[in-house]
Amino acid sequence: RFLELFPGIRWLSVTEIVEEFEKLMVQQIDLRYEAKNLEHFHLNFKGTDYVRFPLPLHPFVTKNVLVETFEESKPISHYLHIETKRELRQKIAKMGMDMLLKMVFVDNFVHADLHPGNILVQGAEHFDDHPEEGTVIVDL
User: Is the pLDDT reported for residue 137 higher than 80?
Assistant: First the structure.
């Protein structure tokens, strides 16, 4: 509230920003919210063949524990090297952009922690034989 004493920054709504930040941080430490978000993403991408989200296993979801289905895959960073075929890198990039644009403009529900450790790739090892199928992004 101290910052609101300065008229030049009132338009920033600092109090509301701090309150929203606090709410989000409290939710981050309760893994039941993470499970709920995974289910939300799963529903949003149902019928989409290029993105997969692990599903929470509800008997094992508590405030402090989250057990999910296992998705066999490799980190996206494995495919970012110049040795990886350009076509495969382009396909992965397109899938990632399509995923992000759908989250932002269609679903209005965005995974805010998108970094190489949270994005995995399945099926890329079969790209040479069947480039039109099988490669999937797994978002943790």
Answer: no
Is position 44 within any domain? yes
Give the per-residue pLDDT at 123. 81
**Which residue in the list 49, 107, 113, 128 is annotated as catalytic?**
113
Return d(Cα 33, Cα 86) in angstroms, integer.
38
Q: Is 49 a catalytic residue?
A: no
The pLDDT confidence band at residue 129, using thresholds 50, 70 and 90, is low
Q: Residue 51 is part of which domain span?
A: 7-139
pLDDT tens-digit profile of 19-58? Answer: 888 887 887 789 999 999 999 999 999 999 888 889 999 9
Indicate whether 46 belongs to any domain. yes
1 is a domain residue: no
- Determine, yes or no, domain membership for 117: yes
